[in-house]
Amino acid sequence: MADRWIHSTDDRERGLPGLAGVEHIGFTVPDLEEATRFFVEVIGCEHVYSLGPFRSDGTWMSDHLGVHPRAVMRELRFFRCAGGPNFEIFEYEAPGQETRPPRNSDIGGHHLAFYVTDLDAAVAHLRRHGVRVLGEPTASSGPSEGQRWVYFLTPWGMQLELVSYPDGKRYEAGSPVVLWQPSV
Fold first, then answer.
1. pLDDT in tens, 10-51
2. Whose C-alpha in 54, 70, 124, 163 is 20 to 30 A from the C-alpha of 145?
3. Are 118 and 126 in contact, with CB atoms under 8 Å apart?
4. What sign does the dihedral 99-102-108-110 (CA atoms) show?
5. H/E element holding 128?
6. Closest by Cα among 57, 50, 96, 58 to 74
7. Integer Cα distance of 45 and 4 in angstroms
8. How far apart are CA 51 and CA 27, in angstroms?
9. What is the C-alpha radius of gyration for the chain, rounded to an integer number of angstroms?
10. What's residue 184's pLDDT?
11. CA separation (Å) from 102 to 7, 39, 77, 78, 178?
12. Backbone angles phi, psi at 17, to 5 degrees
C-alpha cells in the first residue's frame, strides 16, 4: 500500500500546529430520539445543544462532509458525559445509506469507551436497563494490566465499552507519557 501522506523528516513539522486534544467524537444513529434517551437515561450523559437540519441543492454536502450530495442531516446533538471529550450524534437520510453498524473488525469499525469507577456496578446497571452486555468483564494483561473492560450494545447495535483501572495500568510505571484518564 502506497503512502497516502508525506512523511516529515524534521521533528518541527510533526503534528498539527496548536493541537490541544480531542474536542469531540461523532456518530450517526438511526433514531435521534431513541439515541438521546439511551445516552441520557441509561448512560447518564447531558444533552447540551442541537443543530439542523442541513441540506444542499448543490454539492456542499459531498464537498464538506463526504456524503451523498442529496443527503439530509436531520439534526445533530452534542452531549457531555462527565469528563473527557464531548460527542455528537447525527441522524441522516441519504440515498444508498448503509443502515447496519460496522463491526469492530470492519473498516471504519469503532466504539466509544466510557471510564467508570466501579465496573461491576456499571455492568449491573446496564443489565437492569435491558442492555445487551457482551460476555463478562475481562481483566487485561501485559501493559494494560490493572484494567478491566466489557463491551455492550446500544439498542441500534452500536458497540460501546466500559473500562476501569482505578489503580492504573502496568505500563505507567516506566512510561514518560501516560494516556488520558479521568481525574477521579
1. 656 789 999 888 899 999 999 999 999 999 999 999 999 999
2. 124
3. no
4. positive
5. helix 119-128
6. 50
7. 37
8. 15
9. 19
10. 47
11. 30, 20, 21, 22, 30
12. -60, 130
